[in-house]
Write a structure and sequence with these properties.
Oligomer: single chain
Helix content: 25-40%
Strand order of the largest sheet: 1-10-9-6-7
Bound molecules: zinc ion
Largest sheet: 5 strands, mixed
Structural class: alpha+beta
Distance between the termini: 28 Å
Radius of gyration: 18 Å
Number of strands: 10
């Protein structure tokens, strides 16, 4: 199944795309592709947020900002955190949380002065992964922590869920378990950080 790239989505939600492409996206969404429906929702919310924030800015700026928000996949100056600096699954003494109805995994990532603390749990019944996390960033003043965006992406580069941290940098996410997910942390005024989630995200 053919999905759509960021150019297509940016045009689609702004209503500026080629007629044929827009019709193709609409037909695809009508078939109920869950990934693309989620992507459509995120793109649309990004567009709305950008519109609200840039009422006094020229339209070019809007496009630039939407792209900036989603540039974490293509930008060369993205910092990557491939491996956690702490993983409770590698700490036998701490791994005792695996009991009851959920399995929890605690992970800590560091990149470019930014620290991301993740606690992953998988619901036994739904199989969904829920993440409670916190971002701490030497380069971001406390007052700006809630201006960041945390996004979970599929292997194909589709955004499936996003969250805004609160002013303590705390955030929550819930999504379907699957292989090769990654998470991007985009804080205002710094390079985005991309975290490769453990493959065990599909089987905690
Ligand atoms: Zn799709």
């Amino acid at each position: 199944m053919q999905h759509f790239g960021e150019e297509a989505w940016a045009d689609f939600v702004r209503g500026t795309g080629a007629m044929a492409t827009s019709a193709e996206i609409e037909a695809h969404l009508a078939k109920g592709c869950a990934d693309c429906m989620a992507a459509n929702g995120i793109w649309d919310r990004l567009r709305m947020a950008a519109v609200q924030e840039s009422i006094y800015a020229p339209p070019d700026d809007l496009v630039r900002r939407i792209k900036l928000e989603l540039s974490t996949r293509s930008a060369e100056d993205v910092f990557k955190a491939e491996a956690p600096v702490f993983d409770s699954f590698r700490q036998p003494l701490v791994a005792g949380v695996r009991s009851g109805s959920v399995t929890a995994r605690q992970l800590l990532y560091e990149a470019d002065g930014l620290t991301v603390d993740l606690r992953l749990e998988q619901e036994r019944r739904s199989g969904k992964i829920s993440v409670v996390g916190q971002v701490l960033d030497k380069g971001t003043p406390r007052s700006a922590l809630n201006k960041g965006t945390i996004t979970v992406w599929t292997a194909r580069g589709l955004p499936i869920v996003e969250a805004k941290p609160n002013n303590q940098g705390e955030f929550q996410l819930e999504f379907e378990a699957q292989e090769n997910l990654h998470l991007s942390v985009a804080m205002r005024g710094r390079h985005p950080v991309r975290i490769v989630l453990p493959s065990a995200t599909s089987s905690l």
